[in-house]
Specification:
The complex is a heterotrimer of chains A (334), B (317) and C (147). Chain A is of the alpha/beta class and 334 residues long. Chain A is built from 11 helices and 11 strands. Chain A folds into 2 domains: 198 residues, no CATH class; 121 residues, no CATH class. Helices cover 31% and strands 20% of the residues of chain A. In chain A, helix 6 packs antiparallel against helix 9. With 317 residues, chain B is an alpha/beta fold. In chain B, the strands form 2 sheets. In chain B, strands 1, 2, 3, 4, 5 and 9 form a 6-stranded mixed beta sheet that branches. The termini of chain B are far apart. Chain C contains 4 helices and 4 strands; from the N terminus they run E-H-E-H-E-H-E-H. The chains are: A alpha/beta (334), B alpha/beta (317), C alpha/beta (147).
Amino acid sequence: MNYQIEKKDLPALLQQWMQIAQVFAPVKVENFTQFKILSNTNELVLNGPLNTRYPPKSLFLPQSEVLLKYQDRDFTTTTLDKQQRIIFGIRPCDAHAVTLLDTVFDDQDNPDPYWKTRREQTTLVGLGCNEPRETCFCTTVGSGPFDKLGLDILITSLDDVYTLEVITEKGAQLVADLPSLKDDNQQQMLEVQDRALDYLHPAFECEGIKEKLYNIFESEYWQQVSQSCLGCGVCTFLCPTCFCFDIVDETQRGERVRNWDTCMFRIYSQEASGHNPRPTRSERTRQRIMHKYAYWLDQIEQIGCTGCGRCIHYCPVGIDIREMIGNARVWREA
Amino acid sequence: MSEIQTLIRDEAVRLLEAHLVDVVVGFKAGTTPLHPQPAFVTNVQEAQNLLMDGFCQNNLATYLTRLPKEQKIGLVARGCETRAAHALVVENQHARDRLYLIGIPCQGILSWRKIEAEVGEDVLSAEETGKTVFIKTRNGNFKLNRQDFIHDTCLHCQHPDPVSPDIMLGDPSPITVPESSDQLVQGFAILKPSERYAYFSQEAERCIRCYACREACPMCYCTECFVDHTSPRWAESMISPSGTHAWHIIRAFHQTGRCVSCGACERACPMDIKMTYLTDKLNLDMRQEYGFEVGMDDASQPPFAAFSLDDKDQFVS
Amino acid sequence: MTKPWKPKITLFQCQWCLYAEADQHWVDHQLPNNIYLVKVPCTGKISPLYILNAIQGGTDGVLISGCLPEKCHFKEGNLGARRQLDEFSRFLNYIGYEEDRVRFAWLDLQDRGRIQQELARMEKDLLEMGPADKLTTRLPAWEGEDA
């Protein structure tokens, strides 16, 4: 069943949802957007840059999560509220990324309770991308501007109307009262979704990428490609599929916290003995690329990148992962 | 292609052919128009890729502490980059005689953020000619007045031209040196304490501790930064006011008398956090209290590296 | 009956600056409960990080006591500290933290009872200023029974 809503009626729909759940949507922060809880539908920004800078993975895996508080031998563990949540306006690349992270955190044998609880309590209402950006390459890596994977509802923006395609039962519950999608709007929706693909060109060939990367593992390619890398954490922290974390006891205050970590920092792989298996930026850059484009394929047969383009746009030195993969493909030892 | 670009390429070729340097550090074209990439040129062919325009937003001096100390480095350097280079020489991070400063004039670095905000969508091409920047997007062509899109720090730059370079390419910058940031600092200082603290907290709140500011900064080169210490634990790594305040306060303070006000930190920050208002205050104090300005020569010690019996203080005695 | 609020003061004391035995004894054994002592071998050891840690930990005021310039037990230790600590308190003030909460006292060899005097004066001023409400972000998180 598919539905539609006049654009002018969207605020009212959101108000309805705000009665039954916390609604997260892109709101304006400085000159960009970020997912925050809507307290007023006026805050909503849908015509800004396609993607929020800070990824919505933070809504399932917060950058800092207090696991327990302690003093001497007493401790209390954090319990999550029973809180229904709706994430409105998430882009398909980010939703696709959430499903990739499910394979890490919603593991059959050892599910992460924080992740699992949040996932169960959350409905993802996605907004497709009519005009993907120059830095988008979702179709290259198996996603797309109207990719439904991971979404409960997919919204397409037409001129005066939003169409809502229901993908799951969870999504159906939210839109049951809306008018049905009319045929002409359905037709237009399919055209818009098709036209969006015109903006995307294959950034590189994925076939055989894993093998090629393993092939050049010991080569000098990595030295060359990592020369300008500053070793900051921008790419990993803005990445919707990166999930590495560190657990630390902040002893001065008595809190055990789980924080995002990044393989781009030297201390990430620093061992207590002083040895570091990834001593230079060469090894660390290699690690990042191998993880996304080889190891994920080994583990779950999917590429660990959804082509959102944040790392390209915000890398302080303009490093482009598409260029890195493209050059890796054609690298030949001198 | 601009004249300065030809001069840079020619000089790079000259230096490499004469083995006066092992590598020339400059910029080359990136994959997107507003983001040139740092380039490390070791042969004459690669020298033809060297580029220089207003979008070159990094302070290349940060690579001086990342390349081997034995290397002879030719650094394409604008005002702030030469000052950072001199400051690093004073701190013994690279030998002056293994450093060749290729001085070039600067009219201010263009802010890709300001341009994107203005044109509202992705830039397909960007070209600079004199005082104008021509931007082409999918849906429009824009002719922008260069001066309106300069990065905030550059608006107050006191040293656009290289300081004591080994060679000066092109003519000195045509711009008149703008007003310094002292007024901004003084304007901030007279706000109510609660307002100042609110501004500080507000900016710090967005911080995601990616440390792009630290890595982009030429003067932050400690192999072990204070934030990475676990014993004692100076700054918590979690996202919360405690650790984030400590990060911003102490990083700025560790730059006292060392920061060259290039603004690379702000340009690197993915969350658009303002931080130069902190170092500007510290630099102003160093100028006023000790008559010191960093990076003007290869010998003067920064104030915190020295002391004197005659120092003044506000202490009770 | 609730206890009246007493400001928490952190005292960084250079171990040489209290020449009079009576004064040092008072600091070591009779220091009031609301004053926390951190003894250092010289004020030159004090890094701004210590002061920031004390402030974030919830102290309402910081007093640093050291020897007069020219009278440093290690000759120049206190001179090394002076520039940094002087600028640091000015910097904290710039971001809104009241400058008067961070004080330094140079003590002379002949001084007697100065430390008690300075602490009492600070306590009186802090009672007027009220508890510190800025930068106090690193207080214990414990919410259990004895919080």
